[in-house]
Amino acid sequence: MADAIKVLLVDDHQVVRRGLRTFLEVQDDIEVVGEASDGAEGVARAEELRPDVVLMDVRMPGTDGIDALRKLRELANPTRVLIVTSFTEQRTVVPALRAGAAGYVYKDVDPDALAGAIRSVHAGHILLQAEVAGALLTQEDSNSVQGRGGSLTEREREVLCLIADGRSNREIARALVLSEKTVKTHVSNILMKLDLADRTQAALWAVRHGIAG
Predict the structure, then answer these.
(1) Contact, 128 vs 104, CB < 8 A?
(2) Regarding beta strands 127-128 and 5-10, do their DSSP bridges make them parallel or antiparallel, or are they unpaired?
(3) pLDDT at residue 173, rounded to an integer
(4) What is the pLDDT of residue 146?
(5) pLDDT category, 137, cuts 50, 70, 90?
(6) 134 with 89: CB under 8 angstroms?
(7) Rounded CA gap, 29 and 119, in Å?
C-alpha cells in the first residue's frame, strides 16, 4: 500500500480505536500506521510516523484535542487533522476549527462516510457535517459579517472562491498564474477585511454569501 493514506488514531478509549482500526484496515487506500491514547502521545506519534491524516477526539485526559491541534501545526511536517468526536457543543466545535482542524465529524458517522471524509481531508478539502457548519456560521453571525464582502477586490474574491474549494496556496497560485507570496498576501487581506480567524471560516463565509457554491 505504497500510495495508501497513512492514518494515526488518537482517542482515549481503546474500544473506539479498535473499532476504527477494524473498519479502516479493510479499505484498500487507507493504512492505520499507529495509535495514541491522548493528545501529547498523539503529537509525539505524529512527529515520529508522519501520517497523512490524524483522526482525533477533542476531549481526552491530559493534553486534549485542542492543545494537540495547536502543537501539530508547529511540526516541521504538519498533518491534516480530522476530529472524530461525540461532542457537538459550539464551545467545542469552534475552538477545534480555529486551532486548525481540517474536518469535524461525529462518532456516529456512517463508516463509508468516514472513509470518504478521510479521503476528502487528505485531498486538501475542508470537511464539516451540516450541524458543525451551522455552529460555526452561528458564531460568525454573532460577529455581524453582513456587508464586508463589498470591500474585497475582484482578485480577492477569486482567491476566496478557490479557498472555499479547498485549494492550497500553491494550487491557487497555479490556477490564477500568481506567485505563492502574492496569494499569501491576498489571503491575509481577505481574513483581515472579513474579520475572520482562518481559512475554514473564510471558506464557510464564501459559501454562505454566494461567492462559492
Answers:
(1) yes
(2) unpaired
(3) 92
(4) 46
(5) low
(6) no
(7) 9
User: Could you write out the three-class secondary structure of the chain?
Assistant: CCCCEEEEEECCCHHHHHHHHHHHCCCCCEEEEEEECCHHHHHHHHHHHCCCEEEECCCCCCCCHHHHHHHHHCCCCCCEEEEEECCCCHHHHHHHHHCCCCEEEECCCCHHHHHHHHHHHHCCCCEECHHHHHHHHHHHHHCCCCCHHHHCCHHHHHHHHHHHCCCCHHHHHHHHCCCHHHHHHHHHHHHHHHCCCCHHHHHHHHHHCCCCC
Residue among 114, 138, 124 nearest 168 (CA): 124
In tens, the pLDDT along 79-126 reads 899 998 887 666 677 777 777 788 888 888 888 889 999 998 898 887
How large is the angle between the packed helices 154-164 and 199-208, nearest 10 degrees? Answer: 100
How many other CB atoms are found less than 10 A from the CB of residue 137?
A: 17
pTM of the complete model = 0.66
pLDDT tens digits along 14-68 = 999 999 999 998 999 999 999 999 999 999 999 999 999 999 998 888 888 888 9
All three cell numbers of 191, joined, read 481574513
* CA atoms of 197 and 7, how far apart (whole Å): 27
Q: Which three cell numbers stand for residue 25?
A: 484496515
Mean pLDDT, the chain, integer: 83
DSSP strand pairing (53-56 vs 30-36): unpaired
